[in-house]
Amino acid sequence: MFETVPDMACKRAEISPDALAFRDAETGRTWTFSDVNAAADGIAEGLRRAGLGEGDRLAILCLNRVEFFLTLFACQKTGIILCPLNWRQPAPELVETLEPVNAKAILHDAMHAGLAADVAAKTGAALFGFDDALHGWIAQGGPALRAAVPATRPWYLLFTSGTTGRPKAVIQTARMAWANAINIGQAIGLTAEDRSVNFLPLFHTAGINLYTLPVFLNGASSTVLPKFDAERLLAMLRAGELTQVFGVPAIYQALSLMPGIEDVDWTAIRCGCGGAPLPEPLIRFFAERGAYVLNGFGMTETGPTVFLMDAARAAEKIGSVGRAQMMTDVRLAGVPDGAPGSGEIQLRGPNITPGYFENPEATEKTFTPDGWLHTGDVGRRDADGYYFIVDRIKDMFVSGGENVYPAEVERALNAHPAVLEVAVVGCADEKWGEVGVAFLVLRPDAELDVETLRPWCRERLAGYKVPVRFCVLEDFPRTAAGKVRKPDLREFLTDA
User: Which residue of 42, 242, 291, 460 could cross-link 286, Cys pair, CB 3.0 to 4.6 Å?
Assistant: First the structure.
């Protein structure tokens, strides 16, 4: 794409210095683009005086705060690599996460001071708080920095969830951020007039990039909530404060159950969804109220936006994640270019990570010999060029010699009127090799005889796809991004 790109905060401040960039929902404080750039310069100088320089790793432990983004832009100016940490994890897990990156310092908010101190004591990292060090750096200021940014220099690291092993640090670059801004910005029609909201966790790619960083780059504004708060989000929607919203399925599910949902003018709001496919009943629920919630697909390794459905054919292509966006090439392994068919989705483009930080073995395994990223997802392309996610390759199981994709079974069960959410996993079976087990969360006040689910499935699925067991839970174990932790469900069966 380019060898260098402009300093994002500096350039945005030049273009629209007095426009609103951020609003802190807790304090009501607002930040113009000029404020953001000046604060980032101050933080950059403070970090320099504290002994951090290009290539050093700075961990950050906080709820969603405007200060996170100020620090992110300061790191871009200096070449310091930001490492957002999962505040839900205990100190031993965070120490393990940081071990391969050797963070030189930890920056933290007041709520996580104790946790940060525990991690610092075990790693030898220096410790800086928002309320003393960070705000002092902002107040003191620093020289105006405006140097070009190397496009592929590591900017920040995002850690994989670790559900399949030790977390890996996925390198994120300025080039990836710009490519993602183009991919998602064109897909949703993002303009400087938009108003978005930030509530997804900032140690996850969606918290940074869907849509907050693209919103910033386009000169629009974001209101920052400390974390997801269904009542507060609904109040903002009812008040007409937002034009763009992005969430994972669990967010839309929570909103759909809230009193007052009918008072929202959904026709004025553009809605996106990722992390997992939005179940068809939820798609139809919001469509009936004037909102087309557009399914998309991406990964931490892809910046993340790759696919997003378009509103024009959303009602016709229920379940599709749309087409690949401008900055990404896609191919399906074993399928001729452009032809309908199914295969592993493989990706290439400037939005793709250069790899995993100081982990060449994992990086090599993630790319094909000719440079395409393995996603590990099976995709289907229809005759119109629209893509559907079949399932994760690792989630597929073989029952009686037949491949079973849990996502297909989950779609059938999600259509049941008593079912709110479902997750299907494959478990060992002496006769069939593997069989399916379905875990269910019921709708509020719903009653269900689980024995009726077997004939329900049999009417919609081949016999070998029908789960042999149905388990009702109050909720699922989830990752910070709201995804169901299927390995934990298998452990539940083992424990039982």
Answer: 291
